[in-house]
Amino acid sequence: MNVIDIHDVWKTYRGGVQALGGISLQVPQGQIFGFLGPNGAGKSTLVKVLTSIVKPNKCQGTMLGMPIGHKPTLAKVGYLPEHARFPEYLKGREVIQYVAGLSGVPKSRARVKADELLELVGMSDWANKKMGTYSKGMKQRIGLAQALVNDPEIVFLDEPTDGVDPRGRKEMRDVLEKMRDQGRTVFINSHLLGELEMICDSVAIMDRGTLVTQGSIAELTAKSQRIELDYQGSLSPDLTQRLHSMGAESAQQTLTIYQKSIPEVQSIIDALRKEQVTIARVQEVRQNLEDFFISSVSTEGVGGTQN
Amino acid sequence: MTQILAVLWDSYKLLTAKKLFWITLGLTILIALIYASIGTYDQGVSLLFGVIKWKSDLINAQASFADHFYMKIFTDHLVPWWLGFFSIVLALISTTPIFPNFLDKGSVDVAISKPVSRTTLFLTKYIGSLLFVAAQVAIFCVICYLAQGYRLAHWSPQIFLAVPLILLAFSSIYCVIVLTAVLTRSTIFSLLMGLVMWGVGTIINGAEEGAYNYAYSPLKEIMRRSENDGQITHEIVQKISTPFPKIERLKTLLQDEVKLNGEKPDGYLDAFLNAMGADRVESAFNIQARQRHSLTYIIGSTLAYNFGVLGIACFFFNRRDY
Fold first, then answer.
1. What pLDDT is recorded for position A301?
2. Do A244 and A264 contact (CB within 8 A), yes or no?
3. What is the Cα–Cα distance from A149 to A167, expressed in whole angstroms?
4. Domain range spanning residue B83?
5. pLDDT tens across B285-296, in order?
6. What pTM value is reported for the model?
7. Contact B113 A79 (CB under 8 A)
8. Which of B6, B321, B322 lies nearest to residue A102, judging by beta carbons?
9. CB pair distance less than 8 Å for B106 and A74
């Protein structure tokens, strides 16, 4: 079941800047979904459309089974904006309770929930200090806590680990994995591809207001999967021709066999060994998310659209 | 309802976090206490509960209008000047950043992404911002009410009309500030626009008053002017001034509404002015001039202005992307 199922989403800001150009996106329930794209690709705009902060020019589809912009549905949604700013005159606990109130969570429940979440994000000792005294990482922790205060079915996190130290990031990942285990959906916008690769079940890549690709990380990087085989000495013309017919490409004493796994290249290894060729290395190679991302998006700098 | 209470609670926390609120509140209480310390004795007037005394043949414990004099210090001076000017200026300085800060990226997003309509959010935030003035005026009125009860042995609950009147006066300036903030998100520019509109309204309403005085002055005959001289001009200026808020007039409405033992202080003021040698005819005309507009006109046109400006601000708040 898809918790987000949208089609043909368009948004052009005043001044003619097109941020979204007919996006269609499906996000399955109970996944950690990574949303990637260069600066200005339109990632934040799409999240803002889904949370009714930005009004689209056109948008079809649903979130949690209801049309986009349906206010009561937002009671089941959590959101941590990029560069979140919470009232500096409020204490950490008060920020969580304030957002709980805005979400319609009853006061007694909000108090209990605030304590739980402060514990979860490791801010219990700072709960009664004002936001103005917090570091950036501490504010992000409170930001995550407030996004979870209404027990959301979907939580949108825009650059959640911004300013958070490595230990905090690990703790944040643990929280998100716990949410996924509870059947909730986590939608993350981030530039930290290594972070996303560690926890995301699937990702979508945007560039210049359009969706470039979408799928699980394994599916997306499968096309780049290959076996690299280094050998010593030279290959006879006959052997070279045979290897080529078996799908291997040879260059500088390295054979590259695309989209094959180790068991599938045993016949090539057998052919080499039969000709007494020394095999120096056999390695399965697959693009990481960062390489895939770079190869997927335009290399002309920022997307050129308002994010 | 939970959402509305959350926004109001946030406004309360914001209010109490501001040093200027406590400074203004301290000054308000001090001024109210000084008012409470004013009294009369057989030979004149005393201040600071009798510490300072002035001998006066006009105002003393035996004077028939001494009680009205005490009441009029409140209605004619404290309300228009302290509550109606200085505390409004301090409140504007303190509350102007509320909307620009709220509308900052990363701040407004969280509130708007919640299951509460933008209109509710906007109006609740606006009402929450008025708490600054409401709290100051209410506390001031309570002290003055108790002081009048103690000094005059007469309780005048009408003085609490100062709370809605001063709130309406403040709101007439603040709504412009909020509209500018919604359009520009600039604190300085919003404050500037609020002050400019306050000034423009005061000038236009002042011009209308001046035109009225010119057209209907009892001194016309003495000045050998024709009966209709200036009346058309007054009508034109009045039409121009109608849409503007009657801020200055709101501040003096209490002078007509507060009564002492069932009588308006003005009757006694007339006697007081006579005693001081003032012109009775002219003072009567001043009262007539002050009362040339009905309460409905003053309150109605000011409310219409508030609703109009707030409506536009709310429209843009609802419409824009954040």
1. 47
2. no
3. 22
4. 2-21+64-319
5. 777 787 788 889
6. 0.81
7. yes
8. B6
9. no
Which residues 97-156 in chain A show a CB within 8 A of chain B?
98-107, 146
Report pLDDT for B192: 96
Whether the predicted pLDDT of B320 surpasses 80: yes
Tokens linked to A160: 């959640």
Chain A residues 246-275 within an 8 A CB cutoff of chain B: none
> Does any CB of chain A come closer than 8 Å to the CB of residue B112?
yes
Residue B282 domain flag: yes
Is the separation of the CB atoms in A207 and A38 below 8 Å? Answer: yes
Domain-located, residue B201: yes
Quote ipTM for the complex: 0.78
User: Would you call A71 and B117 a contact, using CB atoms and an 8 Å cutoff?
Assistant: yes
The structural architecture, per CATH, of the domain A225-285 is 2-Layer Sandwich (3.30)
Q: Does A10 touch chain B (CB under 8 A)?
A: no
Q: Decide if A45 contacts A20 (C-beta within 8 A).
A: yes
Residue type for position A60:
Q
CA pair distance A149, A114, nearest whole angstrom: 7
Residue range A2-216 in CATH 3.30.70.2740 = no
B199 against A234, higher pLDDT: B199
CA distance B259 to B68: 9
Residue B47 falls inside a structural domain: no
Chain B positions in Cβ-Cβ contact with residue A54 (cut-off 8 Å): 321-322
**A17, A98, A102, A305: best mutation site toward chain B, by most B Cβ within 10 Å?**
A102
| Predicted local confidence at residue B64, as pLDDT | 73
Residue B314 within any structural domain of the chain: yes
Q: Which of A79, A105, A107 is the closest to B110 by Cβ?
A: A79
CB-closest option in B2, B14, B107 to A85: B107
Count of CA atoms in the C-beta half-sphere (13 A) of A204: 24
Confidence of residue A67 (pLDDT cuts 50, 70, 90): very high
Asked if pLDDT for residue B266 goes beyond 50, the answer is yes
Domain positions in chain A: 2-216, 225-285
Contact between residue B178 and residue B313 where contact means Cβ atoms under 8 Å apart? yes
Contact of A188 with A200, CB cutoff 8 Å: yes
